[in-house]
Amino acid sequence: MYFSTRAGGNTLLFADIPSSPPTKAQKKKAAIILPKVPLESLGEDETKTWFKVKAQLGLADREGWVKAVEVEPAEPPEPEPLDPWSFVKNCTLAARVVNKANEATGHGINRDFMIAYALVQTETKMNAIPQNVTSGEGPAQRVGPFALTAAEWKRFVDNPAANKDGYVESDIRNPVFQCYGFAHLVLEATKALSQNFSVKDPTKSSGPWVPSSIDLFVCLTCGEAAAFEFISKMAAGGTGNAVPVIRAKAGDAADAILKRYGRFFGTEADKLKIKDVDEKIAAELDTALKRSFTLVREHTPEDIIYFVSGTLPWYVKAREELTKGVKESGAPPNSEVLKYFKSTGYKTQKEDPWCGAFIAWCLEHSGSEKAAKSVKKATAARAASWKTWGDAEVPIGAHEKGAVPIGAVVVLKPRSKTSDTSGHVAFFVEQDAKIISLLGGNQSDSVKISEYPRSQIVAIRMLKGFDAEPAAGSGPGTLDPNFGEGTLGPFTKEDWARYTEVLGKRESTNNYAAVNQIGYCGRWQFGAGALIDGGYVKAGATTRLLAEDRWWTGKNGVQSRADWLANKNGCQDTEMIAYTKRNYRSLQNVPASKEVIANADKAQLAGLLATSHLLGPGGARKMLKGQDGQDANRVTGREYYAMLASEFGGNPNPPQV
Q: CATH classification of 306-462 is 1.10.3470, yes or no?
């Protein structure tokens, strides 16, 4: 229930119910609420003279008591529009947080599935963006891009192991916060499915059973019991009718499930088979996953790996093993197969499932120290453990030619008629819209290249640092944290000083202590997204929450927004350089901008960097394609481009591609 303060005068918000009448001291401590401000109802006193409410005052929510006569019933406020950049970025960050915390278990989640799930819940068309919408009423009401119920959100909020950042029940309406709650729910579903289907015998399994996107979707929408039955029957051929499974296993929720997802299950009269429902879900998820790749590429291209410099060293090693014709020999076992296990912590003298061991061996013997160190030997023999390997996630919807690096690590869900019942892992070779080719071990008991349906992909992983490095003297490099020697393209050290001076003047009149009305802070007005990427702020924070010390990580001694505004240890100067380098690197690698950035003069570079500072590299990319964006203050990318390009004596209009 919601109220609104009445027109014609201000309303006082008291921390506790005051005396009657309130004293001057109580009034002085009360917060002032302006007319026509929405209030969320939290309760009332016994006499119904006072209502307990929550109001957003400035950048923070405040709870307290208001006089009943000073408010009136109101409709719930419209959900805040979903900002695509914030949503996509925080799906990425939420997945990273969950995967980092669960490295040792072999359980991981996928950003692209999260985005695709939101698309299926709100709009799956190829030009769609997930929406922050509310549907239904009461306990069945679904909120936000992930269509969560209050009970689902409360499960996350009440779990101290998952909710380490103090989310509360009302946060369900914030689409950014939902990313972190939903990530936990996906992990829950992953663990439940894995526990139910994993084979305990290590000689018949390479680790925890890995669910596919379809498995997770059924589990999240229909419940664990229904998902267990659905998946089991699908593995047996999927010839039975689907609706009776939901009726039998989903309990009281069955009617609501079949109504909401009728496009998949049909009606009792339709008698759709389980395999037909599986195909319908797969088709819609495939469209959504491809769209999720497009959204990541458009809005956060910095989160996509573009490998363009030669062949990955571990893939070279895998090709060498392929030419040897390594395959199982039975009794006695092939020593070539057994050698792969030496790169793992799994001890055996049998030809147990060895796809994970093959990946580990190729990485360890690749000649790359970074690749060798990336192998987590204790769990490397498990196919599932590779779901969180590396430090970069390649979108599983990346189906276009060249979108996936050759040699990237691909994890597949378990397949029928295979000894590896937990899943499979191999190196990427090539793909089309429906089929992916992989080079791996234990493929038909040998090292070979095999084809698999793309619908079986659960993760594609990479290591950073193997994509193209800018040439020495023509890019930011990696040994120049203070801009002492390196440059940004044609920029000199003096150009950098000029660029930051002009941009800083526009952002804050070069005031390190500036905070705008939305919460962006510092000389160059950093928000939560940039500070999370830079490691200064925890994933899940919004710009509004930067005022709370608990969200700061302590990097470079910065424990609070006050430290940031004081430019403690030169944090703002250092991060401005690092942030701009990240943007420059993204512009170098995004197809729509890499040719422009490669040939940019100082004016064009300054304009593109300024646009990226305002809107991110994705915003700069859109501008080059004639699609200008704007920030929360309605400042456009073209304005920033013109400002800096003109300062460096260039054309104020950006080039078009």
A: no
